[in-house]
Amino acid sequence: MTSATVSHVSLSPAHTFSKPNVASIHLLTGLGVEGDAHMGVTVKHRSRVAADPTQPNLRQVHLIHGELHDELASAGFNLQPGEMGENITTRGIDLLSLPQGTRLRIGPEVMIEVTGLRNPCGQLDHHKQGLTAAVLGRDKEGNLMRKAGVMGIVICGGGIRPGDAIHVVLPPLPHRKLERV
Asked: Which of 12, 80, 92, 102 could form a disulfide with 4 if both were Cys (CB 3.0 to 4.6 A apart)?
């Protein structure tokens, strides 16, 4: 079995589409990535704020599996970690198959609870034409698949850096499939 690890960490204090890679990030319990524009108890994504600024922030941390970058590269999209706005790029873990409420222990301190799937938006096409369609697909039953990563909340804060191990803690049965958040 391949072990899951953090390959890159990224943050941006401004509402930019891409986030530059950094040597490490610090997560704050109940808030998100310290210094990132999406940190907070209430929602920070601009479209969500416009709809209802009092909703809880279920999108404090954005994770993308690095294998998505590989898949997109084979489709002609050369993307670097952080370029699609993720805070944490992983390797060796199928983030999209995790059930809702899965907890990810990252490094010695951090615990993130997976809240749902990132809903790909038109900003992807503004970044690179056709990218939105490239991160959407259909499963065998014809159901829409969102492949642009998962979102989570910080249960226990601390530092994360590339190379940190990721351990999956599944929630009790019955498992609920991830939905968009």
From this structure: 92
For the segment(s) 4-169, the CATH number from 2.40.10.120, 1.10.1740.10, 2.40.33.20, 2.60.120.10 is 2.40.33.20
| Joined tokens for residue 133 | 């369609």
Alpha-carbon Rg for the chain in angstroms? 15
Q: Which has the closest alpha carbon to 94: 149, 144, 12?
A: 149
Q: How far is CA 26 from CA 51, 66, 137, 153, in A?
A: 29, 20, 33, 13
pTM for the predicted model, two decimal places? 0.95
CB 139 within 8 A of CB 178: no
